[in-house]
Structure formats: structure tokens, C-alpha cells
Amino acid sequence: MYKSIIRPFLFKLDPEKAHHLTFSVLKKLGFLSKYFLAKPVEDKRLEREVFGLKFKNPVGLAAGLDKDAVAFKELSDLGFGFIEIGTLTPKAQPGNDKKRLFRLVEDSGIINRMGFNNGGVDAAVERLKKNKNVLIGGNIGKNKVTPNEEAVNDYKICFGKLFDYVDYFVVNVSSPNTPNLRALQDKEPLTKLLGELQRMNLEKPKQKPILLKIAPDLTEEQLLDIIDIVKDTKIAGVIATNTTLSREGLRSENKKETGGLSGKPLAKRSTEVIRFLSEKSGKAFPIIGVGGIHTAEDALEKLEAGASLVQLYTGFIYEGPQLIREINQALLSPRKSNS
């Protein structure tokens, strides 16, 4: 139903308008939406324990779709094992000027330059207070007007305010849509930032896992630095990867739009990053694999490359909730031998 009726209708609309309409309908339908779209797979064999948390299945929703924690319950009802909200910043901000979201249909991709548009961490916390049983990741960033030298404070504010309402944290320093944000991925500022958050974490009676979301455009040398930073700061793991600035091999007319590219064109590179981190670190930490998952096979490739969990974003928009079901069904099916 999604690909034959709903998607053709939504794809006639401006992408951002389609997003808001979808959320409005999801909120109205509530838990009934799963019966219209794709009934979730419920099976104990899908459960995963990763960085001390129990996930009902390993397929999550990546940050960026439910930035403000508006529809985490309804999205969870579609079958996701966990929902990552954000990126949230201390103060509300409108993000970049519209138009800022572009479908690349010929490439099964999306370019966005949203710019951390969100209603601020306090508003999200009020909605998260109503959460009963959805496993939530809190993706945090800095406000656009905050200079990099003061960025640590923004992350600390979000960390402190969200701490009681999320199950894990994601430090986003890899979005290409906030000026100079990716400079925080350099070894020195990143070690300082993660170290400060870990200090706050250790002051709590019970710690929360902190993960780092990285760009797919990092060099091998930079990825080796990431492995060192994870080891030095003792954070829980890495999310690989965010959107890319690369435009290699694209066919769509709007391929020259500025912003981060997600979807199928990112699949190969994100898997390469996952495999590199997993092998070079000796599987020293968990990795959440995200980027270009449009089929069950795409998800299995990420898991075989070293990911413990996977997340959907663009693939969910193109393929619909059925994709969550197909991945979980594939995980329950015995793999065929190539021999």
C-alpha cells in the first residue's frame, strides 16, 4: 500500500510539506497505522543487547526524521526497535532557509541542508516525559550561533536536560549543514568534547551510553583517530555514518544542491567505514550502521561488516514501513550458503 498509493501521492508534494503531512496522519492514526502499512515482526530471537541496553529488534530510526520527539510512539508502533530523536540544540532555531530538502528519485537519495532546525531541547523533554516504553536515543548538537570554542557548553546543556529521558546519547559533530561543525571531528576538540560529557556521565548514579556519529567523508587516518578517541574517552560506540558531501555517480537533475546526501548512493561508503572501524579496532566497540539501507540485503551487509544495529532514514522514506518488516524477517531466516 505504501509504495503503490501513499508514496506516489507524497512524492508529488514538496518534501518538507510531505514530511509534516505524514507526521500529522501518523499522530491521528496512532497505533492503527501499522495495520494500514506493515504489521511489525514480533519475535524474541530479534532481541539484541548492545552497550548495556536491550533492543527488541536491531532496526532503528535514524536521527533527523523525528527531530523534536513528536511521533516517537507512533513510529515505534510501525516496528522500529528504537527511535533516535534530534538533532536537538539548547535553543530553538529555524534552521537554514527553505527550500532545503530535495529528493533525488533517479538515485533513490535525498539531499538536505536543514541546519538543525528544531524547537529546542526543553520542548522535546516535555514530550519525552510521556514516553512509556520506547527505547530512545538523544542526538545532540550545537546552535548555529554558538562558536566552536564554546560548543562544548551546548552539548553539555543538552546532555544534562535530556539525561533522564533518553536511553543513549549521540554526539553529532558530522552534519555538513552547520557552518564549521565538522571541524569538531578533529582529534583535539573531539577528545575534549567527549571527555567533558563523560565526566558529566560519571557523576550520575547510573551512566548512559554515549555514541559518536561520524561523517562518511573521513580519511583512513581520521578513522584511525576516531578509534583512538573512542578508546581514550571510553565512550560506548560509533554511528557510521552521517550524510556525505560526495556527489559521485549521481544522475538526478538536482544533484548539485548543497547539503548532505543520504540514501542508496551512500550505501557502499558507509559499509566501508563500518568494516574499517570494526576490523582496525578489533571489534572493540559497537557500531550502529546507517546509510543507504533500502533492502533487507543492505541491512545484512552492514551487520556482516561489523554493525551491531542498523538505522533507517532515506530507505524508510522510499520503501516505507515494509522495509523494517523485511529486514527483521530476513534476520529470522537462515542465510543461504554461497558454497
Notes on the structure:
Helix content is about 35%, strand content about 15%. It has 12 helices and 13 strands. The chain has helices at about 1-10, 15-30, 35, 70-75, 120-130, 150-160, 185-200, 220-235, 265-280, 295-305, 315-320, 320-330, and strands at about 50, 55, 60, 80-90, 100-105, 110, 135-140, 170, 210-215, 235-240, 260-265, 285-290, 310. Strands 3-4-7-8-9-10-12-13 form an 8-stranded parallel barrel, surrounded by 5 helices. A 3-stranded antiparallel β-sheet has the order 5-6-11, with no helix packed on it. A two-stranded antiparallel ribbon has the order 1-2. Helix 7 (about 185-200) links the parallel strand 8 and strand 9 (about 210-215). The chain is globular, with a radius of gyration of 19 Å. The two termini are about 35 Å apart.
Average pLDDT rating: 95
- Portion of residues within helices: 25-40%
Q: Helices and strands: which structural class?
A: alpha/beta
Number of helices: 12
Please report which band the strand proportion falls in: under 5%, 5-15%, 15-25%, 25-35%, 35-45% or over 45%: 15-25%
Q: In the CATH hierarchy, what is the superfamily?
A: Aldolase class I
Overall tally of domains: 1
> What is the overall shape?
globular
In total, the number of strands is 13
Pathway: Pyrimidine metabolism; UMP biosynthesis via de novo pathway; orotate from (S)-dihydroorotate (quinone route): step 1/1
Subunit structure: Monomer.
Cofactor: FMN
GO biological process, one term: 'de novo' pyrimidine nucleobase biosynthetic process
